[in-house]
Design brief:
With 737 residues, the protein is of the alpha+beta class. Strands 7, 8, 9, 10, 12, 13, 15, 16, 19 and 20 form a 10-stranded antiparallel β-sheet that branches. An 8-stranded parallel β-sheet has the order 29-28-27-26-23-22-21-30. Strands 31, 34, 35, 37, 38, 39 and 41 form a 7-stranded antiparallel β-sheet that branches.
Length: 737
């Protein structure tokens, strides 16, 4: 009897505890919230039987309200954080809480209503909606509010999740955060290291190429966090350790896009929940659920210039010392074209009248003497010219500053002053939300095409400018919103529609990696931001077939080493980039001492063109398992460190990546970066590459300028590949009919 009484007590206690929880659950995942204040209690992966909260996660959101009409010194913030003058409100401050949980079709919908969050004489009501489809482990989070205070929305942090970490044994030694900075980075030990903070993960900007994070426990799964926002509202991903160093917290910072009070809804959904796999699987979730529904793959686009599609290599540089050297410089460009035997793209700096870089923009015209004739001669010899222009900077010492009323278009800080962020050499950044600046900039590009007949236009700082604008006369909401992305897309759209292109198709190229402008840009130049071989290809896994990447900077000192040259060019090649962005002033392939590099570059160019279905149009798949391949030093000097850092990595002697063409063929892209022949064995990855072992396939290898004749054979468990010293190679596998 006593034993029965004890069991009954435990049973009743369990009922009482369960009654204090709100539970949203399907066969994959379980979310638990405190019924009294909606605090996050637990998130469980039911498939792996893993818990992801070490402690109570607290309020799901925090609001910052402010008065934009009366800014003070204290209210002039670092652009991405709310100020001391802003009033913080949290969900657990509400006077009352009500929720509802119901089913609709194939999903459960939980609504959390927070009533009467106090601020001064007013209050704020908030509604959080959490949606769980029956066939998914990922929750969709939505936020709306009714602001009845005298203050305006400055910032929303949502959804806030504290105390996160996997409870799988030893995961504290194997976990990492996958962060899409440039291609991507793996940051180990997120419980103790800052992973994503202000500036580094602003979106859209140079910092973040995708709007997602993935926490991976290294034991088969993790947590996924993403926003599905095709318009490109400004936001910041935050992920940092808790004070205990035993777990971490993460959330998104969303910025106020309206100066009015009243109702406001977050204009996109947040997706968060457990997933199976690693960073690659998280990136494929983002691709399947978001990117593939928004962006048009290259093989479906009709607006890509054929010359750009077929281009293999880029050079960049200028002859800036004397006007009289323009003709000599152009002759060298033509000589290079003849020696290379390839049409190439030339990114032309310092073509403008002042013959100086980052100086008195946008006073470009007339171009320096001889430029028009140089463009004509270059094009006649198979060189595609792309001059440099800057999308933002405006010199206060130019004649246009007064004539165009540059001060009225400049980005403004909260106190109304012209921002100093991004200023350089007496030039200040203009706001892309201002239609006047957009029209001026489009006119500059129109003149370049009309008067100088260039092949492509380079829009510097397309992705890399994260400044907020607090101006009230630019036709956009002060502070947050999507106006910068909308403005940039408007510029790109107008440039591509210019009638002065004539029968030529417009080609536009922007700086840095990112997705929000992909359909307006043919190429994304990331030459100096993604050099280390340890970067993970998150961006490529999502978008390799939606855009074209260009280049990887190589320093003059690195060219002389054959191993370093092959490592650098080979890395670009296997990652799918158009090659080069070689500095013509430093890397003069017309000189006899570079004949070996010239011949190798020829080989790479031909191999890239042979692999076009993979390297231009193909989907990037999981990197082949190279764990059994010997390793050797991989040296790289990084642009961003001013070449002061010269790290040495231990990387496989053969670099390799895998792609799937639109026709379903699998391509293994390889580079042997050493002076020895290597035979490597790559385990076949049916899960990520498709095709079961034993399936009849036709294998054909591209090497030394030729495809081998394919023969039908069963797909083996391991692909044996012999690749000669210092060589690029393609292995193409097609399912036999």
């Amino acid at each position: 009897m006593k034993y029965f009484f004890v069991l009954l007590c435990f049973f009743l206690l369990g009922i009482a505890q369960a009654a204090e929880k709100i539970v949203l659950q399907n066969k994959f995942v379980r979310l638990e919230l405190d019924r009294n204040n909606f605090a996050l209690l637990q998130m469980r992966d039911l498939v792996r039987k893993v818990k992801f909260l070490k402690k109570n996660g607290g309020s799901l959101f925090a609001l910052a309200l402010w008065d934009p009409d009366h800014p003070t010194v204290e209210t002039k913030p670092p652009a991405w954080y709310a100020t001391r003058a802003a009033k913080y409100l949290k969900g657990d401050q509400a006077k009352s809480f009500r929720y509802s949980l119901f089913r609709k079709r194939n999903k459960q919908i939980l609504t959390l209503n927070y009533y009467g969050i106090p601020e001064g004489k007013g209050t704020v009501d908030v509604k959080v909606t959490v949606i769980l489809p029956d066939n998914s482990s990922l929750f969709k989070w939505r936020f709306s509010m009714n602001n009845r205070t005298s203050l305006k929305l400055y910032q929303l942090n949502f959804p806030i999740m504290r105390g996160l970490a996997s409870n799988v044994p030893n995961s504290e030694n194997t976990d990492y955060m996958a962060v899409p900075v440039y291609s991507g980075r793996k940051i180990k030990s997120p419980r103790t290291k800052r992973c994503a903070n202000q500036g580094l993960n602003d979106y859209p900007s140079a910092g973040s190429s995708l709007q997602m994070l993935a926490y991976v426990d290294g034991q088969g799964g993790g947590l996924y966090l993403a926003s599905y926002d095709p318009k490109g509202y400004r936001k910041t991903f935050i992920a940092n350790p808790m004070a205990s160093k035993q777990s971490f917290y993460w959330h998104l910072c969303h910025y106020g896009d309206s100066n009015r009070s009243g109702t406001w809804m977050l204009p996109y959904s947040i997706i968060c929940g457990p997933f199976q796999g690693d960073w690659y699987d998280a990136a494929k979730i983002y691709r399947k659920q978001f990117a593939s529904k928004v962006w048009t793959p290259l093989y479906k686009r009709k607006d890509i210039a054929p010359w750009f599609r077929d281009l293999s290599v880029w050079f960049q540089g200028n002859d800036w010392k004397k006007d009289s050297r323009m003709e000599k410089f152009t002759n060298r460009l033509v000589t290079l074209r003849n020696l290379l035997g390839e049409n190439y793209g030339f990114h032309w700096y310092i073509w403008q009248k002042y013959i100086a870089h980052d100086y008195k923009y946008p006073d470009y015209f007339p171009a320096r003497p001889g430029f028009k004739e140089a463009v004509k001669k270059a094009q006649a010899n198979g060189i595609h010219v792309m001059p440099y222009t800057n999308m933002h900077l405006f010199g206060k010492d130019t004649t246009q500053w007064e004539a165009w009323k540059g001060a009225e278009m400049a980005i403004r800080d909260p106190d109304g002053s012209i921002t100093k962020g991004g200023a350089i050499k007496n030039m200040v950044p203009m706001c892309l939300g201002d239609s006047r600046w957009r029209n001026y900039y489009v006119d500059i590009e129109r003149q370049l095409v009309k008067d100088y007949h260039v092949d492509a236009l380079y829009l510097d700082e397309l992705y890399c400018f994260p400044n907020f604008c607090f101006a009230k006369n630019h036709g956009h909401p002060s502070f947050g919103g999507d106006y910068a992305a909308v403005g940039a897309r408007d510029i790109l759209k107008k440039i591509r529609a210019l009638k002065v292109w004539g029968i030529k198709r417009a080609v536009t190229v922007g700086e840095q990696m990112g997705e929000v402008y992909m359909e307006g840009c043919d190429g994304l130049l990331n030459a100096h931001v993604d050099q280390p071989p340890t970067s993970i290809p998150m961006f490529q896994v999502v978008n390799s077939d939606n855009t074209t990447e260009i280049g990887n900077f190589i320093n003059k000192a690195e060219i002389k080493s054959k191993d370093t040259f092959m490592s650098n060019v080979g890395f670009s090649f296997v990652r799918g980039r158009q090659l080069g962005w070689f500095n013509f002033d430093q890397f003069d392939l017309t000189k006899p001492q570079f004949s070996w590099q010239l011949n190798k570059l020829k080989e790479f160019c031909k191999t890239r063109r042979a692999g076009q279905p993979f390297l231009f149009f193909g989907e990037f798949l999981r990197t082949p398992d190279l764990s059994n391949v010997p390793r050797a030093d991989y040296r790289v000097q990084t642009w961003l460190s001013g070449f002061k850092k010269k790290p040495v990595y231990q990387e496989p002697v053969v670099l390799a990546e895998c792609y799937r063409s639109p026709q379903g063929e699998i391509g293994i892209i390889l580079t042997n970066r050493t002076d020895k022949d290597h035979t490597i064995n790559i385990p076949w990855n049916t899960k990520d590459w498709g095709l079961a072992v034993g399936t009849n396939i036709t294998r054909s290898d591209y090497l030394n300028g030729n495809w081998t004749e394919g023969a039908v054979q069963p797909l083996p468990k391991e692909l044996s590949i012999t690749i000669p010293a210092y060589s690029p190679m393609i292995v193409k596998l097609t399912q036999a009919k």
